[in-house]
Design a protein that fits this description.
Layout: E1 2-9, H1 14-24, E2 26-29, H2 32-43, E3 48-56, E4 63-67, H3 70-90, H4 95-106
Antiparallel strand pairs: 1-2, 1-3, 3-4
């Protein structure tokens, strides 16, 4: 499992925007707690226009956990709640969680 944070910046200077995006536009984290801390750090920065945090297993599509985009907040809240429930039942590092994530992101039902 990997967690990652995608960050969008707002800046009128193309060179600064390019540097920020290249170095900080995609940040990986080792744990959910690290990913959430990164998300909260970036969402408070004045040059950031949006932040999204995802989890992905080796075989799954990215699964949205948190976002600052108003049109996606409801979906992220539902998915984060489902993910936290799956962790509570299956365990954070279990093969079952990776399988659940794969099924959740491919649209298959149990």
């Amino acid at each position: 499992m990997r967690y990652f944070v995608e960050v969008s910046f707002r800046c009128d200077d193309d060179a600064i925007w390019d540097t920020l995006t290249r170095h900080l536009g995609f940040v990986e984290a080792e744990t959910l707690e690290q990913a959430m801390a990164l998300h909260h750090f970036f969402e408070m920065h004045p040059l950031v226009s949006g932040v999204e945090t995802f989890i992905q297993s080796r075989d799954s599509q990215p699964y949205l956990l948190m976002t600052t985009y108003p049109e996606r907040i409801s979906r992220a809240n539902v998915q984060r709640s489902r993910f936290q429930e799956a962790i509570a039942i299956l365990g954070e590092n279990s093969p079952g969680l990776a399988e659940w994530l794969f099924m959740e992101t491919t649209g298959d039902e149990y």
